[in-house]
Amino acid sequence: MFVGHRQSRRGRVGPILLAAALAFSAGGARADELVVVATRPGITQPFYVTRPDGPPVASVVLFTGGDGRLGPYHPANLQHGNFLVRSRDLFVAEGFLVAVPDVPSDQAAGLGGFRLSAEHARDIAEIVGWLRTQGPAPIWLVGTSRGTLSAALGAALAPGVHGLVLTSAVTRNAPAEPGTVFSVGLDRITVPTLVVNHRDDGCFVAVPDDAPRVLDALTHAPVKGAALYDGGAPARSGPCDALSPHGYFGIEPKVVTGIADWIKRH
């Protein structure tokens, strides 16, 4: 385990870095590192890093949906099941360094409305800053479901982000948990952006037909595109959960390959 710190010019200590090989991906072929960075005063932000075999062609930060808590961290864990979390080895196989954030230390009950806060943007900026210390690879933010709020916020406010991918973006308010990607202010995003949907997504807050509205709102993105998928395995969860078309269940390799190709082209 490595423990270190540096003193900033403003005198605060940060970021603190803690890295340890904690878990192995499917088949035990690849280790994940836990990295913890100091963000706001007294607050730390953990995330898991999985590295490709060679120099990464890009770094991708994968934001899980729901309340943002990772739970058991294993790509084959269908209890957690999130599309991006369970697919992270597919991104690694494309040559990407992958970072998957958990919730910060002051949000143990889940992110909720915190996803739209300036504090969340600062936490994301610290993750991006750490990735910048790992080499010159461009850094992309990729979110799914409610994770699209985090990814969009980071692309709008965190320096050093090179691109954005929104999969199953939340475009309609839920009574118990308001906030959509439009709440972020998509006109503040100035990086290439891809919007991904499944034609049969039945989640009432992530409507595939809203993709043109998302693209129209990205008024300052220099390049923007959309991808629509269909097919997959029979759903094993509710329509807003990950083992359904909302989570690209059964077509993960196809979707990840499409995202990876788009990132590499832009």
Describe the 3D structure.
The chain has helices at 83-86, 88-93, 118-132, 147-157, 181-184, 211-217, 252-265; strands at residues 2-4, 17-24, 31-38, 44-50, 58-63, 96-101, 139-144, 163-167, 193-198, 224-229. It starts with a strand and ends with a helix. It has one domain (45-265): Alpha/Beta hydrolase fold, catalytic domain (Rossmann fold). Helix 3 (118-132) crosses helix 4. The protein contains 7 helices and 10 strands. It is globular, with a radius of gyration of 17 Å. 23% of the residues lie in helices and 23% in strands. It is of the alpha/beta class.
SSE map:
Elements: E1 2-4, E2 17-24, E3 31-38, E4 44-50, E5 58-63, H1 83-86, H2 88-93, E6 96-101, H3 118-132, E7 139-144, H4 147-157, E8 163-167, H5 181-184, E9 193-198, H6 211-217, E10 224-229, H7 252-265
Parallel strand pairs: 5-6, 5-7, 7-8, 8-9, 9-10
Antiparallel strand pairs: 1-2, 2-3, 3-4, 4-6
Helix pairs in contact: 3-4
What's a concise summary of this model?
With 266 residues, the chain is an alpha/beta fold. It has helices spanning 83-86, 88-93, 118-132, 147-157, 181-184, 211-217, 252-265, and strands at 2-4, 17-24, 31-38, 44-50, 58-63, 96-101, 139-144, 163-167, 193-198, 224-229. Helices cover 23% and strands 23% of the residues.
